[in-house]
Amino acid sequence: EKIFSGFSKTRDNLAVIDELLLYWNLADTDKVLDELEEALLVSDFGPRITIKIVESLRDDILAGKLKSGPDIKDALKNSVLDLLTKKGNKTELQLGYRKPAVVLIVGVNGGGKTTSLGKLAYRLKNEGAKILMAAGDTFRAAASDQLEIWAERTGCEIVVAEGEKAKASSVLSQAVKRGKEQGFDIVLCDTSGRLHTNYSLMEELVACKKAVGKVVNGAPNEILLVLDGTTGLNMLPQAREFNDVVGITGLILTKLDGSARGGCVVSVVDELGIPVKFVGVGEGVEDLQPFDAEAFVNAIFS
Ligand code: GDP
């Protein structure tokens, strides 16, 4: 399974504890837990989660509940799985019943927004949906060219801005109107991603959200924030800001194929309470995987 190999670097980071657990006995507890703490921090689980996990393992070991290395490993995997699933967040896209469903893809430039939109289009089209793309990044000329390439590659139709200085919100509202008139199932909307500290970007996203809601009640159905997995914990403040302004319904974490910082997946879910819906594990059309918490845990702690 692709996602399995996608986390190989994070797995390598975490593998240091395996040997220690193999020969574990009670007297080694402090040493083993210190090493585990280090490995979790290096993989970007973040200090809060790391301490929570390590201390709960220590308590269970001292209480005699964990009696062997494999017991400890299982407890570790379960506690990570709990963190990922306890909020009962829906990891599947929630597209409602009105047509077209509208998905806004947001995030800072370079994170993998356009690529993820293309991969998502490919996946949804293969599931039988009629997809319309909307090139809402009117700020960067190259962005719509890039999306047009993805439209061709995936055989999807696309709406692009007519003329320069078109407003993102009007391109998106035009696309959703066309989606409605022509029976599209889903409109996937790209948005601009110049620096997140730029207030006008946030204003623009709010305007986009309103504009599509005027065409179809309840739209957008999903606002997916694309985060670059190689930035690890640094993605947190950015994610918080997007969430505060537009209300994020799900995350797409990209570039996890090359990242040793897979623990940030757990951190971001725990800190923001927003589910990861997809992970990007490469640059090809098929390299977007639905996020499966159990498969993830098995991939990083093999
Ligand atoms: P945008 O500016 O947010 O739209 O970012 P792009 O979609 O243009 O992606 C930026 C770069 O990251 C491109 O070179 C993509 O091919 C690359 N990229 C995106 N997602 C992934 C991924 O999951 N894995 C890898 N290895 N590269 C990715």
TrEMBL record:
It comes from the Eukaryota. This is Cell division protein FtsY-like. It comes from Citrus sinensis. The chain holds residues 71 to 372 of 372 of the full protein.
